[in-house]
Specification:
Rossmann fold; seven-stranded mixed beta sheet; globular
Length: 235
């Protein structure tokens, strides 16, 4: 049995709330990431116990927001090693697209997904979100972004990918009032409205915050802009 002695049930309540089959898949994903990390830099975390808390459990903290989001396709922007996209796909069963501009990482993650037998549930896209938005405009019901960029940048990137009433779920470790105020201002131009804001502790020492924006109507500016403009010349 693919068991791991490590963080306690109190530290990993969401992981332990899943079925045994799903726990095994989450562990398999984490182990494969650790092996692949020896070839390609997928994560700075190299310890399974630390990975269970800071990757797997952390990814699952948005489950309640995912359950409230509209039904339909899910995308994870800046997915890297597949967190939070793969754990959330496993936990919810949503059809998932992992988006990351770094092809080497996405090639490794695509191989992991195939080896896990999840190719029918999860696909990878090695490219910028702006390019994907040109071919899949308004196709996604929910998007996540974990430790990726400023909220205002995330709103710009997510808006053209989301259908009306679709939601962007942002994971934040540190979020100051100025960043949130600016995001709400940019939200008026990108047709994105703040709908929830939740703070909590991951384990006993890590502060976390999940902020959700919902798309309403059409942006007042043309989106997507050219690739890279959201980061180089933010709104």
């Amino acid at each position: 049995m693919n068991r791991l002695i490590g963080p306690t049930m109190d530290q990993l309540p969401l992981y332990h709330s899943l079925s045994q089959e799903k726990q095994e898949l989450l562990l398999s994903h984490l182990r494969m990431v650790m092996v692949a990390n020896e070839r390609v830099n997928l994560t700075r975390i190299s310890d399974m116990e630390e990975g269970l808390l800071l990757h797997v459990e952390d990814s699952l903290t948005a489950l309640q927001e995912m359950e409230k989001a509209p039904d339909g396709l899910y995308a994870d922007m800046g997915s890297g090693a597949g967190f939070p996209g793969i754990p959330l796909a496993i936990a919810t069963g949503r059809k998932t697209t992992l988006i990351d501009s770094r092809k080497k990482k996405m090639d490794e993650v695509a191989a992991i997904v195939e080896e896990m037998g999840l190719s029918g549930l999860i696909e990878t896209y090695a490219g910028r979100a702006e390019l994907l938005a040109r071919s899949k405009s308004g196709e996604f019901s929910v998007i996540t972004a974990r430790a990726l960029s400023q909220l205002s940048v995330l709103l710009e990137l997510a808006s053209p990918l989301l259908k009306n009433r679709g939601q962007l779920i942002c994971y934040k470790a540190n979020l100051d009032d100025e960043e949130l105020r600016h995001a709400e201002s940019v939200g008026k131009r990108t047709a994105m409205k703040l709908v929830s804001d939740r703070s909590f502790m991951l384990g006993s020492e890590y502060k976390r915050r999940i902020v959700v924006f919902e798309k309403h109507g059409k942006p007042s500016i043309k989106l997507p802009r050219l690739e890279g403009q959201a980061q180089k010349n933010p709104l």
